[in-house]
């Protein structure tokens, strides 16, 4: 779990925790509900009860160090945790880049609050028990260059009012490759999308969307590639390529470009070259709530400060 002002979390192995692998919070006390959805109202502690994190701002006056301008989660292996691999509830800009997020007990990444842009780029997000990525309402998220494979739920599911999904491989997920929920506003551009059992893209209700220049593969079922529940004039389709099976032996390969993510093209965070910087200075008081249903013999905390 991570709680800080503009934290940098890099090059860690985060595994086998009872709740999240990494959780990013930046709310002050009473600013809203923290991780929920399972009905519990307890506050975190070493035993799963009340805790309040409060520290003073750490100062670093070295002029050679770049200022920390964005929170960063980079080059971590986050796997086999009890809830989402990465949980975001933040009012700060955040970059999530070049991580391996695998086989977690809930979603790979959950963006519950993101009033500034959360950029998710060049990650491998696979084999999680629910969806690869979920974006909640009123969140601003960009997904770019990720490989989102073989998750048990949808590849990406979004309610966000500003979501950009561009140049990702969203392949082999058991739910729809991409599910757009009512009142979301999404741009889906130049992705390769395939669902193992469901729709390539499913549009639910009144959704504003631009779906352009994607390659969408049909799964091995009779599901259609694209599903739209109602006639929605605000969902615009342009220049997409739909590939359907003509016979069971048909196969496709991810070439030109090869399967994502492409780590050599990663755009690194602004202060990664200055890894000695104290990038975990904390100035806000954080209160977090435990989700019920995850108490087990595994640890609740993996704290990186």
From TrEMBL:
Domain of life: Eukaryota
Coiled-coil zones: none
Keywords, comma-separated and alphabetical: Repeat
Gene3D superfamilies in alphabetical order: Single-stranded right-handed beta-helix, Pectin lyase-like (2.160.20.10)
InterPro entries hit by this protein: NosD_dom, PbH1, Pectin_lyas_fold, Pectin_lyase_fold/virulence, SCF-Subunits/Alg-Epimerases
Keyword Cytoplasm: no
GO biological process, one term: regulation of apoptotic process
SUPFAM superfamilies found in the cross-reference section: Pectin lyase-like (SSF51126)
Periplasmic copper-binding protein NosD beta helix domain mapped to chain residues: 73-225
Matching PANTHER family: F-BOX ONLY PROTEIN, F-BOX ONLY PROTEIN 10
Name of the protein in question: F-box protein 10
Organism of this sequence: Rhinolophus ferrumequinum
């Amino acid at each position: 779990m991570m709680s800080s002002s503009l934290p940098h979390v890099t090059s860690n192995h985060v595994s086998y925790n009872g709740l999240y692998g990494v959780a990013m919070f930046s709310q002050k006390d009473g600013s809203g509900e923290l991780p929920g959805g399972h009905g519990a109202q307890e506050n975190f502690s070493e035993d799963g009860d009340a805790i309040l994190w409060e520290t003073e701002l750490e100062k670093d006056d070295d002029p050679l160090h770049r200022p920390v301008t964005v929170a960063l989660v980079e080059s971590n292996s986050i796997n086999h945790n009890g809830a989402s691999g990465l949980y975001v509830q933040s009012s700060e800009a955040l970059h999530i880049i070049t991580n391996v997020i695998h086989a977690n007990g809930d979603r790979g990444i959950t963006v519950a609050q993101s009033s500034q842009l959360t950029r998710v780029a060049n990650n491998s997000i696979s084999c999680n028990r629910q969806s690869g990525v979920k974006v909640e309402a009123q969140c601003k998220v960009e997904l770019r260059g990720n490989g989102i494979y073989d998750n048990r739920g949808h590849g990406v599911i979004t309610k966000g009012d500003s979501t950009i999904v561009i140049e990702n491989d969203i392949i082999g997920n058991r739910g729809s490759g991409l599910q757009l929920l009512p009142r979301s506003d999404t741009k889906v551009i130049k992705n390769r999308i395939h669902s193992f059992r469901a729709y390539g893209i499913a549009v639910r209700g009144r959704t504003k969307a631009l779906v352009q220049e994607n390659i969408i593969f049909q799964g091995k079922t009779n599901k259609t590639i694209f599903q739209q529940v109602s006639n929605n004039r605000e969902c615009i389709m342009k220049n997409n390529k739909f590939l359907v099976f003509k016979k069971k032996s048909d196969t496709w390969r991810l070439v030109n470009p090869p399967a994502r993510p492409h780590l050599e093209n990663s755009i690194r965070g602004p202060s990664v070259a200055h890894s000695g910087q104290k990038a975990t200075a904390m100035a806000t008081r954080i209160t977090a709530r435990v989700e019920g249903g995850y108490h087990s013999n595994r640890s609740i905390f993996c704290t990186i400060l």
